[in-house]
Design brief:
It is a single chain. The protein is α+β, with helices and mostly antiparallel strands and about 400 residues long. The protein contains 11 helices and 16 strands. The chain has 3 domains: about 140 residues, no CATH class; about 130 residues, Alpha-Beta Plaits (2-Layer Sandwich), CATH 3.30.70; about 110 residues, Alpha-Beta Plaits, CATH 3.30.70. Bound molecules: zinc ion (ZN) (2 copies).
Length: about 400
């Protein structure tokens, strides 16, 4: 047993000591009241008075760094020096105080209350901004929640990659040339959409999460491909999405188009990625036959053969470097063939997402079977490919 009078503690540490009593009163308030009542002096046994001498300063610093930032919910986080936590543990071991809660928790709850009162924002478990009060370095940090924007994109020009490439000047570390993002925005769908979003949200960076991807040389037409853009460390959280959409489309006119922009959350990132392999896609392919000719009968044979046909596809050679070598079982639902000339024809194909269409045509040296080449008995390959529709 111990007597309160025997320990010398500051209001924060004293509040922690009696924290499990009268839980509706903030620990700090209990501590400050007791501290007064007991007429305690300075020289806290746990924190050496670090907490009373630093807390208000850190809160003021935090409020300053929150200026000009748009946020609706807030939460405090606390970092304590290891020596303080050790002293707290020692006192606990010595007296075994029955109502003690951790000093860290006391600080977090009090900081939540003070920050919420001073900013007029609500405290949330998943806040727009988490304010880190670091009592070790006597500095503060802000963890700003990303903004997520859902939409669909159309890619009208061949030769654009889906994601940005690594900056050749800094190798991804970030430099002036790449706006400190480590990535080059030009020539990618991600960059075309993300750069405008970065401006609108006054953000530091962005990541495109899309439902699958088309090849660099394929267009993405129809109603577009679903995506969620993660806008990182935004200073603005609410923008006019219609204006944003118009601005992206104006700047990337003829190359990239977005539609149906709306706000989303993190859970949708996983959802659209999982969805990619489950939904059907419709493609248009221009095919060339390497030797010999094709006849209308050949094309008819193709249409008949590829009706609800199961395809076994080993990971194509061209993506082996980044994908595991497995056999995928995918379905072609239907295929329509149109003659262009003796050596060229056009295919419209509806199939499962995740089927590699170029290899469905070439056969990929037997890795994809059956294939168009196999059924024709002549080597053929895909000269041009467009995604016409992503269903769903
Ligand atoms: Zn203390
Ligand atoms: Zn760079």
């Amino acid at each position: 047993m111990f007597k309160l009078k025997e320990v010398r503690l500051c209001p924060y540490c004293l509040g922690s000591l009696v924290g499990a009593n009268l839980t509706w009163i903030p620990n700090y308030v209990k501590g400050a009241t007791l501290h007064n009542l007991l007429q305690l002096n300075e020289g806290c046994e746990i924190c050496n008075d670090l907490l009373p001498s630093t807390f208000d300063d850190l809160v003021e610093k935090a409020l300053k760094s929150l200026e000009g930032l748009e946020f609706y919910t807030v939460k405090a986080g606390v970092v304590l020096p290891p020596w303080l936590v050790e002293k707290e543990d020692r006192l606990r071991a010595k007296y075994n105080p029955p109502h003690m809660v951790s000093v860290k928790l006391t600080l977090i709850k009090w900081a939540d209350l003070v920050l919420s009162a001073r900013t007029g924002r609500e405290v949330s478990k998943d806040p727009d901004v988490e304010v880190l009060l670091d009592f070790e370095t006597k500095s503060i940090g802000l963890r700003i929640k990303p903004v997520f924007v859902y939409g669909r994109y159309r890619k009208l020009k061949r030769g654009l990659s889906q994601s940005r490439s690594i900056c050749p000047y800094c190798g991804g570390k970030g430099c002036e040339k790449c706006n400190w993002t480590g990535r080059i925005a030009e020539g990618s769908v991600e960059g075309a959409i993300g750069e405008v979003m970065r401006e609108f949200f006054e953000a530091e960076d962005y990541v495109l999460h899309a439902s699958g991807r088309e090849d660099v040389d394929a267009r993405m037409l129809g109603n577009g491909r679903p995506f969620v853009m993660e806008v990182k460390r935004p200073r603005v959280r609410r923008v006019d999405l219609k204006r944003l959409e118009d601005e992206i489309n104006r700047r990337s006119s003829g190359e990239v188009e977005v539609l149906n922009l709306r706000y989303a959350d993190r859970s949708e990132v996983r959802k659209i990625k999982e969805m990619s392999d489950k939904i059907r896609k419709r493609y248009r392919a221009h095919v060339e036959v390497e030797e010999g000719k094709v006849s209308p009968e050949d094309l008819k044979k193709l249409e008949e053969f590829f009706r609800d046909r199961v395809i076994y596809q080993r990971t194509p050679k061209r993506v082996l470097w980044r994908r595991a070598d497995i056999v995928r079982r995918k379905k072609v639902y239907w295929l329509k063939a149109k003659m262009v000339d003796e050596r060229h024809f056009e295919l419209e194909i509806e199939c499962d997402g995740g089927l590699y269409v170029k290899e469905l045509i070439s056969g990929d040296d037997g890795r994809t079977t059956p294939s168009v080449s196999e059924v024709l008995g002549r080597k053929s390959f895909c000269k041009e490919l467009d995604v016409l529709e992503v269903v769903g």
